[in-house]
Specification:
The longest helix is centred in the N-terminal third of the chain and has 26 residues, at 5-30. Strands 1, 2, 3, 4, 5, 6, 7, 8, 9 and 10 form a 10-stranded mixed beta sheet that branches. The protein has 152 residues and is of the alpha+beta class. Helix content is 17%, strand content 51%. It has one helix at 5-30; strands spanning 34-41, 49-58, 64-71, 74-85, 88-94, 97-99, 103-107, 112-119, 128-135, 140-148. Strand 4 and strand 5 form a beta hairpin.
Length: 152
């Protein structure tokens, strides 16, 4: 059969459209939360410890529980909560962080934060760090952050 060129072009584009639809669906299906104002605090030269901050929003109808955190820049990564007792400051390690349904949690200096320890490389201004979050349902989501001197 001799099909019109326009028909053939549309048929040839079908796999591309299906692929794009699949990527869009996969991205939506695996996004457990949305991140805003994500940044890593620039530490003094030679420091082996940095901290990461962000606003995490959970658009899901159920709470999301972060059970683990990893970063490409460091051998050890932990969720911490800063606590003050009188004139002393403590950082408590958190085994998990619950992001309530359709709510936000703020990680900020002086409060909840991600400690980046035992740096594998020196983090310089505007370098990038990828942090991966593990969830209680066995899924993982990565976030890319830039190193800044202070909150952007």
């Amino acid at each position: 059969m001799n099909y019109p060129k326009r028909f053939c072009a549309r048929i040839l584009m079908l796999p591309v459209w299906l692929m794009l639809a699949g990527i869009s669906f996969a991205t939506y299906g695996t996004a457990h939360f949305q991140v805003e104002n994500a940044w890593v605090q620039l530490a003094p030269p030679g420091a082996k410890v940095n901290a990461a901050y962000m606003q995490i929003h959970n658009p899901q109808a159920q709470a999301r529980i972060i059970t683990g955190v990893r970063a490409d820049c460091c051998a050890m990564v932990m969720l911490h909560q800063t606590r003050r007792e009188g004139d002393r400051v403590f950082m408590d390690h958190l085994e998990q962080l619950v992001i309530p349904a359709q709510s936000s949690v703020r990680l900020a200096p002086g409060g909840l934060h991600i400690m980046l320890m035992q740096a594998k490389r020196e983090l310089t201004l505007d370098s990038k760090v990828t942090i991966s979050f593990d969830f209680s349902d066995g899924t993982t989501q990565g976030v890319e952050l830039h190193v800044k001197q202070s909150n952007p």
